[in-house]
Amino acid sequence: MDNKFQCPLCHSLARKTDKFDSEVFEIDCPRCGKYTLWGNSLISRLVTVTDEDKLILSSHLRELYESGNKNIDISNKDLDERLKQAKASKPSSFSEKMFRLLRAIEKKLPSAGSTISPYSDENRYYLMAMSYSKDYTELCYYVEECLEKMGYLKLFPENNSSPTITGRPTSPEYRLTPEAWKYLEEYKLKDRTRSDKAFIAIKFDEEYESAYNAIEAAVEDAGYKPIRADKEHHSEYIMDWIINQIKEARFIVAELTSKNLGVYYEFGYAKALDIPIIACLKKNKGESDEEALKSVHFDLKQFPIIIYENADKNDLGEKVLNRIKNLVGKRE
Ligand SMILES: [Zn+2]
């Protein structure tokens, strides 16, 4: 069955297709992109999430979708984690927001001189998602009061004077200016989302070798290049080398079980730079997750930590791979 449906995240009119049974829906939303919702219980739970948080999640899902993730699932079980990750990956400053909006516009242009109509049905929702706008008015503000006045967007044709209430064309066409192309080029050099490196912070010890192997395989499965200090050849002072690797990484994986100071240092360094972190912790047989978490040094209650029992592909590896997909997406 295929029917019109209000997206439970952004309230846009979306298309819903039932999958398997009536409890699983595939949603094709103009703002969120395509995703699969597992269970009616999730829909009732989403009612308790604030609209602001739902829109952040909507934007996060769209970014994952645009970066090539075509199988995005949300279930009751992982909703909290999804929300935390969405909040952690939203733009942390105004310039970051403007960069993401410009980059989203750039993606729609077949060539440098092409024009875009940001308010067309096709582009409006996409750009609202990519700029984390709460509504259409906010998107108009970013386009007209910010990007246009900052000199990054120019109306095309320049003397466009279609008569409208505001004195502006209702569906204006814009071009990116040379300043915008230069800005995008410079900003991208600093843009971590293009990195294919994943730094693995783990104690160098035989005891953690199997955990390392499981993490390394998961990182590679997701299309990233695992970096670990002792596996690389380097002649620089090791701490400088580690710091540089973390700076260049798309994300880091930190294995916290050993309570190793080096691992905590690397965790803290990545946290300070807003680099996505996947933390994992081993629990003993029969131990509850809560008991295992007591062994973590500082207050990481707000941090989603993977708890695993077996340092192998099926347990630790699978959990890390899923987390990578949810946090930064698989690289194609
Ligand atoms: Zn939506």
What can be said about this structure in brief?
By secondary structure, the protein is α/β, with parallel strands linked by helices. The protein has 12 helices and 12 strands.
Keyphrases for this structure?
332 residues, alpha/beta, Arc Repressor Mutant, subunit A, Rossmann fold, 3 domains, five-stranded mixed β-sheet, five-stranded parallel β-sheet, 12 helices, 12 strands, 42% helix, binds zinc ion
Strand-and-helix sequence, N→C?
EEEEHHEHHHHEEHEHEHEHEHEH
Total helical segments: 12
State the CATH topology of the largest domain.
Rossmann fold
- Please summarize the sheet with the most strands: 5 strands, mixed
Instruction: Give the % helix.
Output: 40-55%
Given as residue ranges, the uncertain stretches (5+ residues, pLDDT < 50) are none
Number of strands: 12
CATH homologous superfamily classification of the largest domain:
Toll/interleukin-1 receptor homology (TIR) domain
Mean pLDDT figure: 87
> Structural class, from helix and strand content?
alpha/beta
Rg from Cα: 22 Å
> CA-to-CA gap between the ends?
31 Å
CATH architecture of the largest domain: 3-Layer(aba) Sandwich
In CATH's first tier, which class of the largest domain applies? Alpha Beta
Write out the distinct hetero groups bound to the structure.
zinc ion
Beta fraction of the residues?
A: 15-25%
